[in-house]
């Protein structure tokens, strides 16, 4: 019963806000209509006046004369009309601002919801416009991808998932009278119905931790798949490489992590059999998809390669823009979540050191060894205390 009463009151408050917004738009239309009519009348009167002056008499041929000086009274009338228009608009804006303050005092919860959706909608439309601009540029020239900034690459990587998530809410809320139901429901369940543009900073961290914990459940499956292929003939043929890779997996099994130099020395294993993306077993591919937050339905290997190539391009963009040290704390936190590390309660120095190890490996990767980047969340973060803290 309490939830029903809250929902009715919240819907009523949102209805008030919608009616005020429509009234504000109507007032702007009226002001614009009056201004347009006034301009048309001025143009018509000036045209008729010029026509009367240019008409020749029957007794003499008209001689060219300089145009008559403008009447001071006409200029004074135009200035007066313009000042009246400015006064009306300024008074109306003062009224709107004062009314918003009144709504803030009487309906703080409804105004909070209103601001969340207004700001989120503006950010979403801005990012969608930027995303389609990037898509059109990349479509005509593949080399444009390597010229984009880090922020543009991150937007290009994250926007498809955000648009897919917000699409059902936008469709349902556009139906007649459906917004009275969808807005309160979306405000109550933002993680399921909205994208990050409508989340607060606290919600972004909280939801990122929940998604990250779900992804970490697949780390053990990926690690077991790596161990199963350790004794294959393709690995055992090179004894030195087999010894180094066995040492790297033993470090993970003993609660440590292999050094980036050891991982880079094992890079040939990811250029062909057994760890290239085309040689992985289906169960291994499915575990990698879930580890990186993707579904395991169609085009599984192609989507993994595309995801790894985007992360690789972002790493190169970080180096072009000055390195990991130039990132802010929020940017480093987002980068860690994307690459498989829980950065909550970590110091900036620790996040920077871990990202530097990742970028060091990423710079040695090419198009034939992108599979290594897909396994780096296990090789570099399998035993991190911040990840284990999510389960204990």
Automatic annotation (TrEMBL):
Residues 214-392 form the Letm1 RBD domain. It is a single-pass membrane protein. Pfam families: LETM1_RBD. Keywords: Membrane, Mitochondrion, Mitochondrion inner membrane, Transmembrane, Transmembrane helix. One of its GO terms (biological process) is intracellular monoatomic cation homeostasis. The keyword Membrane applies. InterPro entries: LETM1-like_RBD (IPR033122), LETM1/MDM38-like (IPR044202). GO terms for molecular function: ribosome binding. This is LETM1 domain-containing protein 1 isoform X1. Residues 47-80 are annotated as: Disordered. The keyword Transmembrane helix applies. GO terms for cellular component: mitochondrial inner membrane. It is found in: Mitochondrion inner membrane. It comes from Frankliniella occidentalis.
């Amino acid at each position: 019963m309490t939830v029903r009463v809250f929902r009715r009151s919240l819907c009523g408050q949102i209805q008030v806000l919608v009616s005020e917004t429509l009234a504000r738009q109507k007032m702007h239309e009226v002001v614009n209509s009056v201004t347009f009519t006034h301009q048309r009348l001025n143009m018509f009167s000036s045209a008729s006046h010029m026509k009367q002056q240019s008409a020749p008499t029957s007794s003499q041929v008209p001689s060219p004369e300089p145009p008559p000086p403008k009447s001071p009274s006409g200029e004074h009338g135009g200035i007066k009309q313009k000042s009246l228009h400015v006064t009306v608009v300024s008074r109306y804006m003062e009224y709107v601002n004062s009314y918003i303050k009144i709504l803030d005092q009487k309906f703080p919860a409804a105004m909070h919801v209103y601001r969340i959706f207004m700001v989120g909608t503006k950010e979403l439309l801005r990012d969608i416009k930027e995303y389609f601009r990037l898509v059109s540029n990349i479509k005509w020239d593949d080399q444009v991808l390597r010229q984009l900034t880090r922020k543009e690459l991150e937007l290009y990587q994250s926007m498809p998932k955000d648009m897919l998530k917000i699409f059902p809410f936008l469709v349902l809320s556009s139906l007649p009278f459906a917004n009275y139901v969808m807005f309160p429901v979306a405000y109550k369940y933002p993680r399921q119905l909205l994208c990050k543009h409508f989340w607060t900073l606290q919600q972004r961290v909280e939801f990122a931790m929940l998604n990250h914990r779900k992804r970490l459940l697949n780390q053990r499956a990926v690690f077991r798949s790596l161990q199963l292929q350790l004794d294959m003939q393709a690995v055992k043929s090179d004894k030195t490489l087999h010894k180094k890779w066995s040492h790297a997996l033993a470090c993970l099994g003993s609660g440590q992590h292999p050094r980036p130099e050891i991982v880079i020395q094992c890079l040939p294993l990811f250029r062909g059999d057994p760890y290239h993306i085309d040689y992985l077993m289906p169960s291994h591919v499915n575990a990698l998809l879930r580890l990186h937050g993707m579904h395991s339905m169609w085009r599984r290997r192609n989507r993994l390669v595309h995801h790894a190539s985007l992360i690789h391009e972002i790493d190169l963009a970080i180096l072009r823009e000055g390195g990991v040290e130039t990132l802010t704390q929020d940017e480093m936190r987002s980068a860690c979540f994307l690459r498989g590390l829980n950065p909550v309660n970590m110091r900036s120095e620790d996040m920077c050191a871990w990202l530097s190890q990742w970028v060091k490996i990423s710079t040695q990767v090419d198009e034939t060894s992108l599979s290594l980047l897909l396994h780096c969340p296990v090789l570099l973060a399998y035993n991190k205390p911040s990840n284990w803290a999510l389960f204990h």
